[in-house]
Amino acid sequence: MDNLFDIKGHVVVITGGTGVLGREIGAYLARQGAKVVLLGRNEEVGARLADDIVRQGHEAIFLKTDVMDVAQVEKNLDEVLADYGRVDALLNAAGGNMPGATIAPTGTFFDLKVEEFERVLNVNLTGTVIPTQVFLRPMVEAGRGAIVNFSSMAAFRPMTRVCGYAAAKAGISNFTAFLANEVATKFTPKIRVNAIAPGFFLTNQNRALLTNPDGSLTPRGEDVIRQTPFKRFGRPEELCGTIHYLISEASAFVTGTVAVVDGGFNAFAM
Ligand SMILES: NC(=O)c1ccc[n+]([C@@H]2O[C@H](COP(=O)([O-])OP(=O)(O)OC[C@H]3O[C@@H](n4cnc5c(N)ncnc54)[C@H](O)[C@@H]3O)[C@@H](O)[C@H]2O)c1
């Protein structure tokens, strides 16, 4: 094959497709010729994002979902198959940290509410497992496909205050390796499962942790920049190349990995 990165006509399903990272990746993949399915909770935002892509001459649809609702995700699959007849890739980008599951700067572990811990664990981890179980099926039937899960720096090193989020993301890295083995050995090595671990990108789920209302950095935000050799947060478009690689033939022998895109944060020691 001449162009290992060719994804023209590939059907790419993105959970969290209306999120800050998901929407940027979706628009980029559509520009590469993919048929993009944005799955999200906000119909108004999702329809507008899909329209924007279509108006620019590319292909996309929006479908309302809740990644915790198996019946709803199965309905989404039926609609994708009715429209496009296949699923080439799934990006599990729904999730994020939640304010209720974050321990306050002056708090301790005893202040953690177990229900909130469960909620953040469920949305991130089970909310990755459910769409994977649903959208993997047509990939197994077709004998090919790619899945990319969204892990985090918090999976490598548990960060202060966000223990539920960190546990969930560590679980996602672990699940990624499990599933890579499972599908390669029980179905086909032509279905690959990898994860991306973004460093720090300012989005709705972390803005209040990293920045003050006037846009200046919180002490935690300053700490992140101090430990990032590039001395800045990431830009959502900087995830697109790695995602493109992981869903294309360019990564044909790559499975079970976690690709770090972090401006050097994970390599920093002192
Ligand atoms: N922003 C970062 O710095 C960063 C770093 C590492 C990992 N991530 C991960 O990247 C992914 C995308 O996050 P983002 O930064 O774009 O944040 P975001 O908050 O903009 O997007 C997350 C999306 O997930 C959706 N979502 C949440 N619960 C859902 C549910 N039950 N059903 C369907 N959708 C649901 C939200 O509606 C939202 O659109 C998340 O998994 C996040 O944990 C982000």
User: CATH-wise, what's the superfamily?
Assistant: NAD(P)-binding Rossmann-like Domain
Strand order of the largest sheet: 3-2-1-4-5-6-7
By CATH, the topology is Rossmann fold
Structural class assignment: alpha/beta
CATH architecture assignment name: 3-Layer(aba) Sandwich
Order of helices and strands: EHEHEHEHEHHEHHHE
Broad CATH class? Alpha Beta
CA distance, first residue to last residue = 44 Å
Mean pLDDT: 97
CA radius of gyration: 18 Å
* Total number of strands: 7
Topology, please?
Layout: E1 11-15, H1 20-31, E2 35-40, H2 43-55, E3 59-64, H3 70-84, E4 89-92, H4 114-142, E5 145-150, H5 153-156, H6 163-186, E6 191-198, H7 207-210, H8 219-226, H9 240-247, E7 258-261
Parallel strand pairs: 1-2, 1-4, 2-3, 4-5, 5-6, 6-7
Bound molecules: nicotinamide-adenine-dinucleotide.
Descriptive notes:
By secondary structure, the chain is of the alpha/beta class. Helix content is 43%, strand content 14%. Strand 1, helix 1 and strand 2 form a beta-alpha-beta unit. The N and C termini lie far apart (44 Å). The relative contact order is 0.14. Bound molecules: nicotinamide-adenine-dinucleotide. The site of nicotinamide-adenine-dinucleotide has 28 residues, from helix 1 and helix 4.
